[in-house]
Amino acid sequence: MNYNKKTVKDIDVAGKKVLLRCDFNVPQDKATGAITDDKRIVAALPTIQYLLEQNAAVIACSHLGKPKGEWKESLSLAPVAKRLSELLGKDVIFAKDIIGEDAKAKAAALQPGQIMLLENLRFDKREEKNDPEFAKELSSMAEVYVSDAFGTVHRAHASTAGVAAYLPAVSGFLIGKELDIMGKALDDPKRPFVAVLGGAKVSDKINVINNLLEKADTIIIGGGMAYTFKKAQGYTIGQSLLEADKLDYAKDMMAKAEAKGVKFLLPVDNLCAAEFSADAKPVLAEGNIPDDLMGMDIGPKTIAAFSDAVKGAGTVVWNGPMGVFEFPAFAEGTKAMAKALAESGAITIVGGGDSAAAVEQLGFADKMTHISTGGGASLEFLEGKELPGVACLLDK
Ligand code: AMP
Predict the structure, then answer these.
(1) Which of 237, 306, 324, 326 has the most ligand 1 atoms within 8 A of CB, as the residue to mutate?
(2) Residue 361: what pLDDT?
(3) Sheet containing 57-61: which strands, arranged edge to edge?
(4) Residue 142's closest CA among 90, 92, 96, 99?
(5) Out of 66, 92, 363, 388, which could bridge 156 as a Cys pair, Cβ 3.0 to 4.6 Å?
(6) What distance in angstroms lies between residue 241's CA and the mean position of ligand 1's atoms?
(7) Which residues sit opposite 28 in a β-bridge?
(8) pLDDT tens column, 227-247
């Protein structure tokens, strides 16, 4: 996969109509529809402002929620247009449809330096089907396509990949940064390259482990997924999470790591609980976990060993919490890893989704080199999969 893609700076946009795919999939209050977190809109501003400064006419588009091809007033992008207008300090013209009469008329009248927003792309079921006719209609309003929604690059939808068949396609600053930092970590990492993986399920991370075994110097496994590996090593794991059908896989991976000389670190002690509850009393277990307990977090010896492995790293990629960090009594392991990354001096990359939430919640967000804006997308990136929304962009 080539991550070296043209960005908005490599193409002339002056006076041109630019179709800009944003990620305006913001959380909203269920009762009032008010936007409860505008981080994604704020994150889109640098690309938008650059395009407007270059005198482009910007036709922004996004999905919001999961309307599944149905017109749902509660998922209209109208509140996003309003918030974007407040943040930009200028009018955002809002189209009442996507590729209909209103959108086309407003796009045709759009002047350089002006911005408009189309209605929710997923109100039309052809968007997620990557329907060529829909993509063609969408692209017919513009002369250049700029993709800046990293959260959807792993999807081949009309607005994330299909339109690139009809328009010169480049990345905005958000995707540019993701490709730059994560692409480099995978292609040519500063070594030692340490991968820290956690979260609930082995099955979610199988392809990531497979890919990283070819690239990393050390793989650290924590979280609920670690117990399947511990069981495969012959330890008892009590009531901890287990994916029995992945035991053979776990054995294979550990054998492969050994054969390749990749260090493979697992927890040596665990904070356990008798029940999965925030109020459960933490009980420390070294080695084996008693029958009536479940592993909820990594223990102090493990924290020390994992932190030590991160300390000398050149690059650290982290995806998945070390324990049930949502419960304060079992958040120490995740917190300690965030701290270890923050103090490592390494290039630190945190995958989206739960790990990004954990790092933010625990107050270490500004200490990381990069926190990916896409959960599923960053996971597929680490899997080494071809991302349709990246593959469709022009090579540098
Ligand atoms: P993932 O979405 O796969 O990254 O998993 C994140 C979830 O894994 C979080 O909600 C954590 O609470 C959960 N998790 C982490 N460690 C454990 C554990 N030891 N037992 C159960 N769940 C866990």
Answers:
(1) 324
(2) 84
(3) 92-94, 115-117, 57-61, 17-21, 144-147, 169-171
(4) 99
(5) 388
(6) 9
(7) 35
(8) 999 999 999 999 999 999 999
Exactly one of 201, 256, 263, 301 is catalytic; name it. Answer: 201
pLDDT of residue 388: 97
Q: In the chain, which residues have pLDDT < 50?
A: none
Place of tokens 């299909």: 162
Q: C-alpha distances in angstroms, 54 versus 6, 11, 51, 113? A: 17, 11, 5, 8
pTM of the model: 0.91
Q: Say how many residues make up the chain.
A: 396
Q: With contact defined as beta carbons under 8 Å apart, do 351 and 378 qualify?
A: yes
SS3 218: strand
Mean pLDDT score of the chain, rounded to an integer?
96
> How confident is the model at residue 354, as a pLDDT?
82
Residues 158 and 130 sit within 8 Å (Cβ to Cβ): yes
Distance linking the first and last C-alpha atoms of the chain: 13
- Counting ligand 1 atoms within 8 A of each CB, the residue from 354, 355, 382 with the most, and so the one to mutate, is 354
Evaluate whether 348 touches 368 at the Cβ level (below 8 Å).
Answer: yes
Task: Say how far apart CA 171 and CA 394 lie, in whole Å.
Answer: 9
Of the candidates 100, 314, 376, 384, the residue annotated as catalytic is 376
Distance 17 CA to ligand 1 centre (A): 45
